[in-house]
Amino acid sequence: MYLTGYDISILRFTWGVIEDILNHSKSIKSFNIRVREPRDLDPGQFIMLWIPGLEEVPLSPSYYDGSLMRITVMKRGPTTEAIHRLRIGDRVFYRGPFGNGFKVSNKGRYLLVGGGYGASPIIYTAHKIREYGYEAMYVEGVKTESDALFIDEAKSLGLDTILVTEDGSSGIKGLVTDYIEEVINEYDYLLGCGPEGMLLKLLELCNRYGVECQLSFEAIVKCGVGICGSCELYNTGLLVCRDGPVFDSRILSRYLGGV
Amino acid sequence: MYLTGYDISILRFTWGVIEDILNHSKSIKSFNIRVREPRDLDPGQFIMLWIPGLEEVPLSPSYYDGSLMRITVMKRGPTTEAIHRLRIGDRVFYRGPFGNGFKVSNKGRYLLVGGGYGASPIIYTAHKIREYGYEAMYVEGVKTESDALFIDEAKSLGLDTILVTEDGSSGIKGLVTDYIEEVINEYDYLLGCGPEGMLLKLLELCNRYGVECQLSFEAIVKCGVGICGSCELYNTGLLVCRDGPVFDSRILSRYLGGV
Amino acid sequence: MDLRVRLGKLELRNPIILASGILGLSGSQLRRVGEYGFGGLTTKSYTIEARRGYDTPILAYVKCGLLNAVGLENPGYRELARVRESLKDVGIPIIVSIAGSKVDEFTTIASYVDELGFNAIELNLSCPHVEGMGLELGDDPNYVYKIVSGVSSIVSIPVYVKIGLHRDIMATVGKSLDGGAEGITAINTIRALAIDVYARKPVLSNVYGGLSGPAIHPIAVRIVYDIYREYGIPIIGVGGVSSWDDVIEFILAGASAVGVGTVIASKGLDVVREILDGIKTYMMDEGFKELSELIGYANK
Amino acid sequence: MDLRVRLGKLELRNPIILASGILGLSGSQLRRVGEYGFGGLTTKSYTIEARRGYDTPILAYVKCGLLNAVGLENPGYRELARVRESLKDVGIPIIVSIAGSKVDEFTTIASYVDELGFNAIELNLSCPHVEGMGLELGDDPNYVYKIVSGVSSIVSIPVYVKIGLHRDIMATVGKSLDGGAEGITAINTIRALAIDVYARKPVLSNVYGGLSGPAIHPIAVRIVYDIYREYGIPIIGVGGVSSWDDVIEFILAGASAVGVGTVIASKGLDVVREILDGIKTYMMDEGFKELSELIGYANK
Ligand SMILES: Cc1cc2nc3c(=O)[nH]c(=O)nc-3n(C[C@H](O)[C@H](O)[C@H](O)COP(=O)(O)OP(=O)(O)OC[C@H]3O[C@@H](n4cnc5c(N)ncnc54)[C@H](O)[C@@H]3O)c2cc1C
Ligand SMILES: Cc1cc2nc3c(=O)[nH]c(=O)nc-3n(C[C@H](O)[C@H](O)[C@H](O)COP(=O)(O)OP(=O)(O)OC[C@H]3O[C@@H](n4cnc5c(N)ncnc54)[C@H](O)[C@@H]3O)c2cc1C
Ligand SMILES: Cc1cc2nc3c(=O)[nH]c(=O)nc-3n(C[C@H](O)[C@H](O)[C@H](O)COP(=O)(O)O)c2cc1C
Ligand SMILES: Cc1cc2nc3c(=O)[nH]c(=O)nc-3n(C[C@H](O)[C@H](O)[C@H](O)COP(=O)(O)O)c2cc1C
Ligand code: FES
Ligand code: FES
Asked: Most buried pick, A242, B162, D37, D232, via CB within 10 A?
């Protein structure tokens, strides 16, 4: 499975033009980008977005249809701040797609879990799952109501949709993982993306309840093609950029041990 | 038409093993070569045959079916002499095919004219013409009976076959071009390969009698891909290796003038 | 869309120049090549005496280009009179490439070239496969100065120095300019070797050859960029152009004109139009009216 | 079919070595890579202090390879103790690459490496994109001598010097051997530059990077051939291997072992098996029983 063939030409930068900007909250924006070159991009795969003169950063698009790509970006440091300053009509450069995304080819009931901007690849996956016509529940965990990202979109896809807020300002109050524990038994597959703590807890739950999971991890990505070694997942030798960012429970259990 | 796209990987050497050797005369031998890699090769195209440690030389195969390639070689200088010393089981290296061969896609009556080892691409062309089921006459011109190369093969293809010997030791006595002048009127197309004098005379005849011709010319071939400039045809700027070696009457008349 | 560029004193209708050594052995070849739309033509490198060149194989296939060891085959500089004659009305600048081993060989040929009315001279100090008339000349900045100043002082047409991967490229360039060169042609092929794994021998009769084609392009771009940044002079960028974007890249790096060679082996001479069309589309899409605006742009 | 080769004092189960800088940042990475069938592994170049490396982009795509400017990112040489620990039972030789700018940096790290029980040292004197700790060290044969003799005199394990396109390669090699190096690793990446034609800026944050991949292979083969011919020493051939035939070509040129790097970006680590299978088929077809018979064969 791992570190197998890749078409290196994904490393060539291409670009798109910002067509629309959505302000989700003060720290998260989405950008609809009309792309110049269609490149296949599965939900959960990532691109490296480059603003010439600044750095390139890994982002997992929250929607893609071959012509329109949406990215959902949280302001965190210099590059994401610069992205937030972009305007309609601006050109953005990117390369990819990199890595392995979520596999949704099996029929079954899917539990989709996004924490914060981690909901990006999850909502894109939700679109795919609806295309296939599988059953799924979409769960988004955020701090407070105003941070919610894709609740309406998930609903409009016809999915059972649950918002979990830490402060209870909307939806269910509490930690998303606590809610998941209540419902996990009803699902065959869990797909998750979000903060590290959430991911590790989800892995534990999936192991406990015997649910297959696929989780998207973050790390410092520099080369994107599995040669520089900067994106190692803990001390496993696994590379987020190439073996991941989405890892399945089988691999995670083998490499991370019993968590 | 000219100097258009080429797959440069024809410049990679491949090899074959000599399976059989035919001694036509004291100066001409044919070698049946079992090739390692099938590469399309039209009649009239040429390969560069290389004996590592010596030079590579251009040769127009006298037969090719994708697996068996026959070359017919006249001893002339150091490399062709070395080729004559090869034995069954020896490996020969070659690259190609290069250049443009004879075009035989039009229905019509073909007059095929080979002079000396120039009969090589002509007999290979004869095989193609028979595949297409067109009408053709095969004419071979040599000095004396013992120099004849492919007379039996042409007959066995069911073609009208004429041997012309300068000394009259067999077939028709005289110069092959004199014989051609007698019959040219009955044909739509003339394809010829042989000594320069013969080719220029054939061109003149074709112009005079309004017969379309395709003639294969020789020159010093070094690069084979139209960049070194060593194979220029007279002072025309035309390159034997790439625009030729087979040129049609339209081009020849335009560039060589009225001969 | 204005594709014209100034290359020092020369005005080119477009920046695409036939690189030296490709079909530049005779006037009739250059004449024919000229019909394909080039902005300028460079002849094969001419020497005092005619040279047969090396035995075949003179070309080796490698995965990203070609190796060649032609061995500076040419009919000797006196033939240039005939070359000039047949190029009388070709209408684009002709640059004559000169190779040699001693200063007086360069000056003898250069003054002849100047008299014949050619448009520029390119001094080939960088052939990587001919001992005594190649790379080692350009490796020695003092000798470079002697050759270039010798030539520049006696001719009225612009002089370009063609460089390769020399020991100290900037010193070679600096001394070329001190000697009176108007600009630099960069780069020549890079010394390399290919072994056939079945023959288990080097492919080229000369063993060593010069690597050209896409393989060397990023190295050539680096050198053009460095020279432009340091000296801001006219540069002919050469090396591994396989399509229009490589040309634009050279120009952004600082080249005023761009030579093409090896790509002709694969795409043929029609590549010129393909490149020019690509450049026009690019300029249109990106909103540039004059190609010359782009020269050195990436240095900003 | 015997794929074992002797690389000086080391015995390798096969000639394929992971080149320095590819997934060699941690013990866990090297451990994992070791499972794919390599004959030996080289670590990333370690320096005295930890280095963050350059900002992204650190890689640029070019038509025949990659440019990289990682900037010698590494956690500092003290981490090597942990690297050693996790590679205890990996069963294949581990070569530690060292970078630095002063003799005592090299000797400090080298003696630590020796103590830790690694199998060999590679002195990286040829990184083309880090000022003061790269190519310019190897460009100066006297400094090469100082570094190599400094290191060789205090360690018991073999020392290799990794070279690039230096001003006078043979002088660099000669002084390396005088200084006590057992052999040479050739070559590192070649300084190059890529400009994005739409961004109209150099792609790499560091502007310059090192060219690797198929582009540089024929140049690397030339250098290996030259070194073998002149000195007949153990050589690790590196540069542009993309399949088994490139490995055989290196070996025929004189390499005793062959490093692979960039190809891992495209084919992944499975490429090792693909290469070994290709070599076995070749040896079978061509009637060779021992791969070591082929070392330097093309020089005969
Ligand atoms: C596979 C993947 C997908 C991602 N998808 C998204 C997304 O859809 N939306 C989103 O907002 N963010 C996403 N991220 C995170 C995003 O890449 C970082 O927030 C961004 O790189 C920070 O850059 P900066 O310059 O703004 O901040 P910096 O000041 O550089 O860093 C801020 C924080 O981000 C981390 N970080 C820095 N550089 C990188 C890097 N190259 N790779 C990973 N983390 C880094 C640092 O550890 C630090 O904690 C993703 C990360 C990965 C690995
Ligand atoms: C397209 C083409 C197809 C050919 N097909 C055949 C063929 O099927 N059978 C055959 O016997 N011969 C053929 N020849 C001619 C053959 O290539 C030469 O006889 C051969 O190159 C001579 O090499 P040598 O070393 O034996 O002799 P040399 O001593 O090198 O030369 C002997 C004569 O051959 C000519 N010659 C030398 N080198 C070349 C070269 N590279 N290209 C062309 N001519 C050269 C010389 O002008 C000289 O007159 C063909 C030539 C061309 C151009
Ligand atoms: C077959 C061939 C012959 C060449 N001959 C010469 C020459 O005579 N003089 C010269 O300066 N450069 C010569 N060159 C080098 C080219 O002019 C050019 O610098 C080099 O090939 C790189 O450009 P390219 O990659 O576009 O081919 C030759 C190149 C080739 C491929
Ligand atoms: C991403 C990357 C990082 C590298 N880092 C180092 C390094 O730290 N030390 C070193 O000696 N060589 C380094 N190299 C050079 C390689 O070891 C090798 O010499 C070069 O890439 C040529 O081989 P290749 O074409 O197989 O990649 C690096 C190469 C790449 C692509
Ligand atoms: S980012 Fe380089 S190995 Fe993953
Ligand atoms: S042989 Fe080189 S151009 Fe024809």
From this structure: A242
